[in-house]
Amino acid sequence: MTLVLPDRRATTSSEAAVVVNDVSKRFRLYKDRSTSLKERVTRLRRSVYDEYWALRDVSLEVPKGTTYGLIGHNGSGKSTLLRLMAGIHRPTSGSVDVRGRVSALLELGAGFHPELTGRENVYLNGSILGLGKKAINAKIDEIVEFAGLGEFIDSPVKIYSSGMFVRLGFSVAVHVEPDILIIDEVIAVGDEDFQRRCFDHLYRLRSQGATIIMVTHSLNLVQTMCDNAAWLDHGELRAIGAAPDVVHRYLDEVNVVEAERIGGGTEGAAEAEVRSAHDLISIDEVEFLGRDGLPTKVATPLEPLTVRMHWTAREPIELPLFSFAVESEAGVYVANPGMQTEDHTGKLLTGSGHVDYTVDSLALGPGQYTFSVAAHDHSGTTVLDKRERFLTLRVQPGSRMVYGLVDMLGRWEPPVSSAGGPA
Hints:
Elements: H1 8-11, E1 16-30, H2 37-42, E2 49-63, E3 67-71, H3 78-86, E4 93-98, E5 102-105, H4 118-128, H5 133-147, H6 162-175, E6 180-184, H7 192-207, E7 211-215, H8 219-225, E8 228-233, E9 236-242, H9 243-261, E10 272-275, E11 281-289, E12 295-296, E13 298-299, E14 305-318, E15 321-327, E16 333-335, E17 348-359, E18 367-376, E19 383-395
Parallel strand pairs: 3-7, 3-8, 5-6, 6-7, 13-19
Antiparallel strand pairs: 1-2, 1-4, 8-9, 10-19, 11-12, 11-14, 14-17, 15-16, 15-18, 18-19
């Protein structure tokens, strides 16, 4: 999905919408669950439980009018922190100061009554979120149209699919004009068309000054949409700051852990590596070749460039699919060219060699770019070898100025007057 982003700094305010101050949250995990009220009363004094700390000493601020991402592995405390912000849980210690009206979409069907129709649940949810009947009446048609449920809007929600739940819940949540919108991953359940409409609406909300806080496992979404992010790990805050920087730190950690798990190791390496458990093929070296065919670390817009990957096949292997990803200094993924399955079948690689990706006219604008490289099996479904952020290319200004990340490589035609001739 390609998103055209507004100037994020223009809407950023130094005033905080949410302040989380030294927050910890503890839950009790009971080992013997009572099956009746009598058992619960008789076992009250001798119930056995373990203490589970979902969060420990977490502090962060979400600036007003920005989009904030929470990332981390499952069970890291992200959803617990969202529920504290939404007022569903209270912290065991510390405080959460929320400054504005909150609308939250935390799980499928939250606040829905299964026996009520979709339309009736719109009124129920709207009232829970603080809207009166008159205000809901003014928005009901817009909510129903955005949800796209058609004739199902007057059917009981107990017959709805998970996607229908999400569409209706999201539509209500974003149309109550919240100051702060809290979202926990549920958008991912919707189809492609609905996801695009969701993101379009989120940008409109933000342009109107709303603060958006989201939990998502889509790191690309965090990098492209969020201003700032926080990385949680086992309930503790590991990193906080600009979204691309936090995502990079998280990915570096994930890659190191994965490399250790499959025995690749990263000691002494500048980049994080991922090695195949089968050790069929490795990418040993990558280099850039300039117009003269010689290795270079510096390129110029609109000049030829070759990306050469040197590989070693430890046994005959059906031709793998090579690819690389290009990332800007700001953490934006610029390109991800890869071999196509239908173009490379039935061939075997043996020994060692190299594969080239040739660009006749480099479209990148001036700046510094990092390259991640990978080799996949012939079907493209399994990663055989991967090196994250393996090498850097600096693109320097050329004779023709390029503004932005890429040059469209088009050309301007002379203006034509309304009379049909040259202006």
